[in-house]
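Work package 3, deliverable 3.1, input record:
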Amino acid sequence: MARPLLHDETLRRRLLDTAASRIAHDGAASVSLRSIAAAAGTSTTAVYSLFGGKAELLTAVLDDGFASFAASQQQAAAGGLEALGRAYRRWALDHPALYGLMFGGSLAGQVPCQPTPGAAEPSIAPLFAAVAAALPGASDDEIASMVGVVWGQVHGLVSLELTGAPAAGWSWDAAYDAALGQIGRSLGR
Amino acid sequence: MARPLLHDETLRRRLLDTAASRIAHDGAASVSLRSIAAAAGTSTTAVYSLFGGKAELLTAVLDDGFASFAASQQQAAAGGLEALGRAYRRWALDHPALYGLMFGGSLAGQVPCQPTPGAAEPSIAPLFAAVAAALPGASDDEIASMVGVVWGQVHGLVSLELTGAPAAGWSWDAAYDAALGQIGRSLGR
DNA sequence: CCACGTTACGTAACAGTGTTATGCAATACT
DNA sequence: AGTATTGCATAACACTGTTACGTAACGTGG
């Protein structure tokens, strides 16, 4: 009997890359499976063989995004809380479509894909460590709550900026500076 | 010559209401124009006559949502900053699909509708007033930045909670309490 | 070395989507 | 009453994700 042929890894990567670049260029909304397959020089059924469907392909793109995001956070970890915050915003502004998929997709209820459980954890691990270092005597619950507060603050400002929210009267730069300053003050005390 | 017949207002409202309830029930993603029209007892072309298309119908639903949200905020304005924050979260948790459309739809790049310019302003006006009252001597820029910070904090926590983000180790209740407490402390000082 | 069972994936069909051309009944003014 | 004009139902169109089918390529047992 015959042994099953392994999935073609180069085609898989090519599909992933063209999907990612097409999403980054046109937004996840208007990207069709057919256009991805055609741009990758294959047919739609290849996606079904290699991933299972459009949702799984998007999930794979999204997991790649989480990996890149986590790497960016870990690289900034040495600089402390403020560096983490600035790297967070920079990555999001550099990958707006990916960030939207990662954190806003299921919010809008539009994309039928959600990150693999646990995919986001390496991304916030550096933040956890930084908060724990800044609050030496705090309990685990206090630290965890503070992580939620800081993450919420940073994510909120970034996602409002990305949606093109009005920003009536302020600049996102200034608001972000003020938020980071306030976080530093309330944690550094 | 004949005078044009005014648009049928009852059909317009029925379409708006069934669209809103269907969005609240199934999420904005999986709601089709055909299903809305059928549930309203009419045909898809009625939507084109009355609104112009699906995007405009969604925009109308979304503007209704902003009106309801602004009313909720204005009602809570008397209670100060903390009441505003709690009303913000309560409204969002009560209308998750609408909140996602209002603030996360364009983030995900999935919904081709965006709020009418200026529709969000009445919603944050009470927050503006409360921040200005809490910082009597502050400049306009400082007040505006602070509004951005507070809005970002509240929106970030609420939207993370709505996306079903991991919340590894903390409860959203506790994080929200901590955030509101911190806002009160940094503004009340 | 070669047939064979298994797989990768192109072709073509299907159901469902938003949108649009066509046509008819209802309307309000002359 | 007659008529120009509108509201909206019917049906077609282009497009989407998904799936049955068929074919070419492959690794292995003989």
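Residues 1-5, 32-34, 44-45, 48, 53-54 of chain A lie near DNA strand D (CB under 10 Å from a C1').
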